[in-house]
Structure formats: C-alpha cells, structure tokens
Amino acid sequence: MNETMIVGLILGSLAAMVPIVLTSVGATISERAGVVNIGYEGILMLSAFFGAIFAEMAHSGWVGLLGGALTGLALGAVHGVITVYFKGDHVIPGIGINLIGYGGVAFGILAYWGTAGQHQVPSYAQITPLWMDAFGNSLSPMVPITFIVAALAWWILFRTPFGLRIRSVGENPEAADALGINVELYRFTAVLIASALAGVAGAYLSVDWLGTVTKTIAAGRGFIALANMVFSGWNPLVALIGGFIFGFFDNLSIYIQNNPWLAGTIPWQFIATLPYIVTLIVVAGIIGRARPPKWDGRPYKRE
Amino acid sequence: MKVSDELRSYWKPLSESVLAIMIGALIGAIVLWLSGYDAVAAYKALIEGSFAAGNFAETLSKSTPLILTAITFAIGARTGLFNIGAEGAVYFGAIAAVATTQALQDPLSGILSGLLIGALWMLPAALLKVYRGVHEVISTIMLNWIAFFIASWLALSALANPQNQNSTVPIPPGARLPLLVQNSTLSLAFVISVIAAIIVYVVMWHTKLGYELRTSGQNPRAAEYGGINPRIAMIWSFLIGGMTAGLAGAVQVMGIPPSYSISQGLANVYGYGFDGIGVSLVGRNHPLGIIFAGILFGALNAGATQMQQTGVPLEMVKVIEGIIIVAVAVPGLLDLFTKLFRRGGP
C-alpha cells in the first residue's frame, strides 16, 4: 500500500458515502415525523435518470442535482398523499415506486437516448471536482455539502421549534395535535424534504460520482441508506459515521474488482457481496439498542 | 358466514384490483404517448401477444413462477411480515435443481431440493428478525444481493457448461417436466404452481398452523394471550415462503425448453421475486386471487415481447406494474372513485 492508494481509498469512500448519507438523513427526517418509506431505491433510480436529462439540457451538473430534487419531490408527494392524507399503508407505495424506478429507467434510457442499458453522461453535464490528482483521484464539492446537510439536519431536528414539532408528530401525534400542531402538514413536509434529499443523492450518482446512467444505478443504496438510518439511531450526525463505513466497503468492492492481481485470488462475486454482508452484520449488531420513533409507520387519524 | 356474504366480501377487493389495473394501463398509456410511442398499437400488440390463440400457453407459462413467488409474499403479509426475499430463494432453487438432477436424474429430486434450499435460504432472515429484531425488508434485500452474486458464481464455476459458455449444464432429459402444449414453454410446472397455491390456501385457512400464522399477523399480542408463539409463527412463515420461492426457481429451469438451464447473469431466473410482490398485492395476498393476478402479470410479460416489436422497450410493463401497485396502496380506492363520480352527478 502506498500513499496514492490510501488517498484513493479514502476519497473513494467519501464519494461513496454521499448518496447513502443524504438518503439516510432524509429518511431520518421522514421517520422522525412518523412516516416510513421504502421507496428511496426507486427515487434514486428515477432522479439519477431525470437529473442527467436536466444536466444535459442546461449544460450544468448543478441543474442536474436540482432536477433530481424535483423528481424526488414529485415521487415524495405521491407517497405523502397516500400515507399521510389517505392514511394508507407506508410500505406498499414504496414497493410500487421501486418497480417504477427500475422499469422506468431501463425504459427511459432506451426511449430518450436510444442506447440499451447504459448512457454515458457527457463531461459538460457533470459537476467539476474541487480537487483532482494525476491518478484520477478526485474530491467532489458534494462531499463537504453532505457534511453540512447532515449537521444542518441535526441542528434543525434537535435545536429548533420546527424540528421539535417534526419529532413530536412522529413520537406522539395525539399530544402534538392537542397542542394545535398540524400533524398532517408536518408529516407531509417531512416526507417532501426526505424525498428531495434522496433525489439529490440520485442525481449525484449520474451527474457526479459515476458519470453514467445504468438500469441498476442505485444498486441497493436506497436500502443500505435505510440500514444506515437504523444504525445511526435516527441521528443525522451518526449517519455520517455509518455512511463512511458503508461507503468504504462499497468502494472497496469496486476497488478490488478493478485490480486484477487481487481479483484473481478471490472470485469477484464474493467481494461484491461485501457491502451487503457488512450491512447485515452492522444492523444485526446494533439493532437491540436502536429505538425507532414511537409512532413510526402508523397513520394518524384524529379521533 | 352465508355464501352471499362471503361472495360480497370478495366483491370489493376484486373491483378495487380491477380499478387499480385500469389506472395502471391508463397512466402507462400516457407515459407511452409522452415518450412519443403509439400507445394504441403497443397495447394492441401487448394483448395479442398474451391472449391470442397460440400465445395463451405462453401467458400461463410466464405466470408459473410469479404465482409461486407471490405466495411467498402473501404468506409473509398474512403473518405481518414484508418478506421480499423470494428473489434470492428463486436463484438458489434453480441452482439446487440443476445440481441435484445431475446426480439423481429424476424430476422429484429437483423439486424437493428446490423446496429445501429455498426454505434454508430464508432462515437467516427469519432468525435475524426473531432474535435480533432486524426488519425483514432490510435483511431480505441484502440477502437478495448476496444470493445474486453467490448464485452467479456457482453457475459460472461448479455448474458451468463446458460446451456452452452462456449457460449452466442443462437439466438431464429424464428430470425435465413434460410439456402440456407442444411448441410452447407451457409445462407441468404450471399445474404444480396452481396445486401449490391451493395447498397454501388450505394450510392457511383450514389448519391450526394457518390459523396461528394469521392470528399472529393480525394481532401478535392477542395471539400470545391465546397461547400462540408469534416468533415460531414468523419462522414458519419465512420457511414456507422460502419453499414456494425455491420451487419457483426449480420449475423455471426444469420446465422451460429449449435450454433447461440457467442462463448467464441468471437472466432466466431474475426478477420473479420482485414481480411476485405485485402479483400478491393485486391478488390481495390470497392464494386464489394470486392465481388470477399471476395470469394477468404473466400476460403482461408474455405480451411484452410482441409489444417490443412496435418499438416500445420491454421494461414498460414494469412501469405499468409499479403504477398498479401504487394504486393498490391507496386505501378505499373504490370509494374515492365512486365519490368522485357522484359529486359530478345531480
């Protein structure tokens, strides 16, 4: 191991943690308000796709991120209306959104760009890195932004009246309602914030980190983010630590697969299972201590 | 319950599912139209490709694995679990069937090994849920990915076909399931899946075990007061669900000509676990509803190839399926709909 390799691994882990942390932080806000959503995988998929389209039309990766956020908002609105206002099940819409995500992106790549399965995002539509070395290692501006978003989310959730209200509608909506807090409005807002963050994370995949749109671009990260949320104990700051661990293994498996001298000794398929096995072990080890918000995943109907 | 009451209890979920399907088809048409495709021609090809005389056998064949994986999800849902791990169990069911039939050369060995391995693969998710409280959505999704990589590796190494790089060794002729219709892919596998659905219906609604599973699903605390251990019920739910998913994988390679093997990248056993969730939801998590929903989704998959010839990408049917599921998730969909129309009236 030389210096460049270590720098590469750390920068790679930081790049890989961005989508996981942004989605985890979003999911935390939503679940703190009492709304479960397992559709982040689908949101990542569709916002990676529409984010790339926005970026290519505007010749700007940042507009791509905005397009991702808007895509997330639209999908979040669907989930929010069904769960918060129609009092529907919190898990089923996510299953549908994930299916639309995987089908829609595979369909969309072919329908929009005319290529099957994969589209390379041109460099004019990608976000320029803050720093880059001769070996292709780079640091995206989204890395510091992700740290700021996590810190800001923590501050809002635990240090502002708005955050207190978000937590109250997820912990005890009856009491919150009695105090005159509009439970439905706060829950719906939390769902929208969460989906917009996941949307930015999805667009980051295509217009920044991976620079491509593929029909499996989310690769389970929507679910790894949920696992990280559980790991963090629904705390955005701890989600940064978990995100780095997951990012490290995600990046390590890509790194080993790309190094033939390492890949030759162990089948690459075994290495590819690493992030998922680590997720299982971490979640199994941590879960006894983690406590979800009391009213998480339950519709609130005024008596 | 009187017969008329029982029929009425089926009427509402049935009409809600039909309504959800219509919404899926309508929004799907709008997406097609916005993307610049001829929606009418696409849907015409879709229906022709699935229900025209020569093609219906293909629809039933395509519905076979979906019925079985839908049952995995349905048993979970009835026990209060979101078991979306059928996908991984399908891969291993297929691997097990290919491996055992090489040695034993008869169809029963393939089916039994599929059932067994499917159940075994669900065990980690069951134990993680019961003893560590890990939510099954997270554990089964992670296990699906792990299964994909391990099964791909097994298919390329231990079961690799020296004559053909694009698939595993085939199921030996003596262990293949007989075809029901010549020149189609409809085999005895379809009959097996329907029988499995009926067995699960009988077990879930007419045995003590089924009663215990459903009671712990509806109200775990009440079940415990009634002397039922919800943990044991959950483990059973995972195991039975794993069996039907493993069976899906086994019959998918034992009954589909001409290759009778697992294709590269697990292509011919991929995705059935995910599609089964939608089939189960549209079939209202009931084995008998699932048979019909399975045939509907089978029709979508069978018709998709014909639709592709009009230029529309195959994956469009996944979008339609996803929209149907989101529509199913809207509670009281029918009431909303009728209210909307009454408001417009006098």
Give a written overview of the molecule:
The complex is a heterodimer of chains A (303) and B (346). Chain A is mainly alpha-helical and 303 residues long. Chain A has one domain: ABC transporter involved in vitamin B12 uptake, BtuC, CATH 1.10.3470. Helix content of chain A is 70%, strand content 3%. A two-stranded antiparallel sheet of chain A has the order 1-4. Chain A has a two-stranded antiparallel sheet with strand order 2-3. Chain B has 346 residues and is mainly alpha-helical. Classes of the chains: A mainly alpha (303), B mainly alpha (346). At the A-B interface, helix 4, helix 9, helix 12 and helix 13 of A face helix 5, helix 6, helix 11 and helix 13 of B.
Layout of helices and strands, plus pairs?
The complex is a heterodimer of chains A (303) and B (346).
Chain A: H1 3-32, H2 40-58, H3 61-85, H4 92-113, E1 118-120, E2 131-132, E3 138-139, H5 142-159, H6 161-171, H7 173-178, H8 183-209, E4 212-214, H9 221-231, H10 236-257, H11 260-263, H12 268-272, H13 274-286
Antiparallel strand pairs in A: 1-4, 2-3
Chain B: H1 3-34, H2 39-51, H3 56-78, H4 86-104, H5 107-132, H6 136-156, E1 160-161, E2 164-168, H7 188-206, H8 208-218, H9 220-225, H10 230-254, H11 272-282, H12 287-308, H13 316-329, H14 333-344
Helix pairs in contact in B: 1-13, 2-12, 3-7, 3-8, 3-10, 3-11, 3-12, 4-5, 4-6, 4-10, 4-11, 5-6, 5-10, 7-8, 7-12, 8-10, 11-12, 11-13
